[in-house]
Amino acid sequence: MPQAISNLIRRFSTLNAGLEHWLTPLFDLGIRLYVANVFWSSGLVKISDWGSTLALFEYEYHVPVLPPHLAAYLAASGELGLSVLLVLGLAGRFGAAGLFVVNLVAVLSYPDLSDLGRADHLLWGVLLLVALLHGPGRLSVDYWLLRWLNRDNHKTP
C-alpha cells in the first residue's frame, strides 16, 4: 500500500477516535437533555393545574386499561421522575425505556393528535430508543458508577 494512502487511513482513524472520544458523549448528553426537557416540561404543566389534568385524563385522553386518575398520576410522576433519571444518566436505560412507554401511551391515548404532534412524538421516541439501545454514554452517573465498581473489583486482596 502506498505511503500516502496509509497516512490518510491513519489520519482518518485518529479523527474517528477523537470524534468517538469527545463528540459522541456530548451527543449522548444532548439527546438526554433535549428529550428530558420535553417530558419534564409536560410533567410541570400537569402538576401546575391538577384539576385540569384530571379533567383531561377523564374526558380527553383515552389511556387504555388504566382508570383516568391513575393514568394522570402515572403520567405526571413518570414524566418528572424518569426525566431526572435520564438527565443524570442514572439508570439511564430504565429512564429512557420508561419515557418511551409514556410517549407511546400518549400517542395511543390522544385520538386528535395532529400530524405535527405525531412527528414530534416520533422524534422523541427515536431519540429515546437511541438512549435505550446505546446507553446514556460517558457523561452519565451510570458510566462513573460502573467505572468505580470495576475499579474496586479489580483490586488485588
Based on CA atoms alone, the radius of gyration comes out at: 21 Å
Distance between the termini: 49 Å
Summarize model confidence as the mean pLDDT. 92
Q: Structural class, please?
A: mainly alpha
Task: Tally the structural domains.
Answer: 1
Description:
There is one protein chain. It is elongated, with a radius of gyration of 21 Å. The protein has helices spanning 3-48, 50-59, 68-88, 92-109, 115-134, 141-153. The protein has one domain (3-153). It is an all-alpha fold. Helices cover 82% and strands 0% of the residues.
Short key terms for the protein model shown above:
157 residues; 6 helices; mainly alpha
What topology emerges from the helices and strands here?
Blueprint: H1 3-48, H2 50-59, H3 68-88, H4 92-109, H5 115-134, H6 141-153
Summarize the structure.
The chain is mainly α. It is built from 6 helices and no strands. It has one domain.
